[in-house]
UniProtKB/TrEMBL annotation:
GO BP of this protein: methylation
Alphabetical list of Pfam families matching this protein: Methyltransf_3
Taxonomic superkingdom: Bacteria
UniProtKB keywords: Methyltransferase, S-adenosyl-L-methionine, Transferase
Glycosyltransferase is among the record's keywords: no
InterPro entries: SAM-dependent_MTases_sf, SAM_O-MeTrfase
Organismal lineage: Bacteria, Bacillati, Actinomycetota, Actinomycetes, Mycobacteriales
Protein name stated in the entry: Putative O-methyltransferase
GO molecular function: O-methyltransferase activity
Coiled-coil segments: none
Keyword Zinc-finger: no
Length: 250
C-alpha cells in the first residue's frame, strides 16, 4: 500500500471531508458531490452484475479519488465475518451512505434480504444506482428516514417490509454516532432481534460513540456478549479504530 493510501492527511479529499463534517449529520453528505461521483465511477468502471468488482471499485475510488466514510475494506472484513456467523437471512443497516455496507452484507449472505435506513434521499439514490449495477437491487432496499423519528420509520419497516419479533439476524450500525444507543434500544423494544442475532457497530474510536460502548460493557454477559475488534479507520492505516460485534443473548 502506498504512503498516500496509508496516511489520509496526504489526501486533499480527507481535508475536504473535515471541512464539510458539519454537513454530514444534517445532509448525510460531505457537500462536494463525491457521493454521486462514486456512483458515476462505479457505473463507468465496474463490471455490471459483478458485486465483487463493484465493491473493489468503491474501494479504489475511496483511496484514489475521494475519501468515503463507509466502513471500508479492512473493517469490512469484520462485517463480512459477522454476517456469516449470524447465518443472516434478514439484515438491517442504519446509515446507507453510498450503499457499501449493504453490498458487503449482500455478498456475505447471498440469500439474505437487506434493508438500510438512510436520512438522505440523495444518498438513497446513489446507493440504489450502485446496487442496481451490482445486481442486488432485488434484495437490498433503502428506507428513507431515521429510527428516531417517533416511530414512523420503525412502523414502515414493520408494516411495509415485514419486520416482526425475532426475525432480525443482523443489525449493522454506522450512522450518526449520537444515535447509536437510542436507536439500538428502540429496535430492542420492538423485539426484532432474536437470541443469537448479531449487532455490529463501526467507528467506536473515530469519531466514537462512548455511550454505546459503555452500554455494551455494562450489558456484557447479561443482554449481550461483545467482542471489541482492533482495527483502523476507513481507508488508511494511521489512526486506530474499534468495531464492536455484540451477540444478543435475549
Amino acid at each position: 500500500m502506498s504512503l498516500k493510501r496509508r496516511i489520509p492527511f496526504l489526501r486533499w479529499s480527507f481535508w475536504r471531508l473535515a471541512i464539510g463534517s458539519r454537513n454530514i449529520t444534517k445532509t448525510g453528505q460531505i457537500g462536494d458531490g463525491r457521493e454521486a461521483a462514486a456512483a458515476d465511477y462505479v457505473v463507468a468502471n465496474a463490471r455490471r452484475g459483478d458485486i465483487d468488482d463493484v465493491i473493489a471499485k468503491i474501494d479504489d475510488f475511496a483511496y484514489d479519488k475521494s475519501f468515503l466514510i463507509n466502513i471500508g475494506d479492512e473493517k469490512g472484513e469484520l462485517l463480512d465475518a459477522a454476517v456469516r456467523r449470524a447465518h443472516t437471512e434478514l439484515a438491517l443497516e442504519l446509515g446507507t451512505y453510498c450503499g457499501y455496507g449493504s453490498l458487503r452484507i449482500a455478498r456475505a449472505a447471498p440469500t439474505a434480504t437487506v434493508f438500510s435506513v438512510e436520512l438522505s434521499e440523495a444518498n438513497a439514490r446513489v446507493a440504489q444506482r450502485i446496487w442496481a449495477h451490482a445486481g442486488v437491487a432485488d434484495r437490498v432496499t433503502c428506507v428513507v428516514g431515521t429510527i428516531g423519528d417517533g416511530g414512523k420509520t420503525l412502523d414502515a419497516l414493520a408494516n411495509e417490509h415485514g419486520f416482526s419479533a425475532g426475525k432480525l439476524d443482523l443489525l449493522f450500525i454506522d450512522h450518526d454516532k449520537a444515535a447509536y444507543l437510542p436507536d439500538l434500544q428502540s429496535i430492542l423494544e420492538r423485539g426484532w432481534l432474536h437470541p443469537g442475532g448479531i449487532v455490529v457497530a463501526d467507528n467506536m474510536l473515530i469519531p466514537g460513540s462512548p455511550k454505546y460502548r459503555e452500554y455494551m460493557r455494562e450489558q456484557q454477559g447479561k443482554l449481550f456478549d461483545t467482542a471489541e475488534h482492533k482495527t483502523h479507520g476507513e481507508y488508511q492505516t494511521l489512526a486506530p479504530d474499534l468495531v464492536l460485534e455484540s451477540e444478543y443473548l435475549g
